Amino acid sequence: MLQIFYDSQEFFLLKELEKLGPRKGVITQSVKDVVQSLVDDDLVSKDKIGTSVYFWSLPSCAGNQLRNVHRKLESDLQSGKKRLAQLVDQCDTLKKGREASVFREEALAELKSIELKYTELKHEMEQYAENDPAAFEAMKKAIEVAHSAANRWTDNIFTLRQWCSNNFPEAREQLENMYKEVGITDDFDYVSSSSVPLCSMGD
């Protein structure tokens, strides 16, 4: 496609390029995409004149573009070399005091052994976590609080039932049916402390 522009050094509409593209081996359906990619790479210029969009490219423009690319690559190369030198210096600095020695190898071996032991102890602690006395004591206190709360609400329910019976004696049967529907049956009563099991943490 670039050769079409270079040979003619003229301005083209997209329709014209779609006719010329196949002569250079570019199928008509892909001419638009190829030309757009050349525009994106600044190898082909594009401008709208009136209602028409024209494309053009001159050999001198391509030369300038390549020279610009070359300058950028040269700049990137110099920056890369400078960064490499900095990293080499940093690496040399970090190596100081870390030279291979018998003492260093022994210290690293000891460190690895300590890390393995730490991992083993950590796993062992996780196994015993379920029987932690502090956690078990906290559970006992939580059960006591729940037991007290359950009985407090039971007392509230009994008080409410008594109030309903006193104020609506004619609706006693309907009230009893309503109590049963919400789970308040004849065996509804306070929770005794002996009925609250203290299970182990693992249960």
Automatic annotation (TrEMBL):
Chain segments annotated as coiled-coil in the UniProt record: 70-131
Keyword annotations: Coiled coil, DNA recombination, Meiosis, Nucleus
Compartment annotation: Nucleus
Stated role: Required for proper homologous chromosome pairing and efficient cross-over and intragenic recombination during meiosis.
Protein name as annotated: Meiotic nuclear division protein 1 homolog
Family from the record: Belongs to the MND1 family.
A Pfam family of this chain: Mnd1
Keyword Translocase among UniProt keywords: no
GO cellular component: nucleus
GO molecular function, one term: double-stranded DNA binding
Residue intervals of the Leucine zipper with capping helix domain: 135-191
InterPro entries (alphabetical): LZ3wCH, Mnd1, Mnd1_HTH
Ranges for domain Mnd1 HTH: 1-59
Gene Ontology BP annotations: reciprocal meiotic recombination
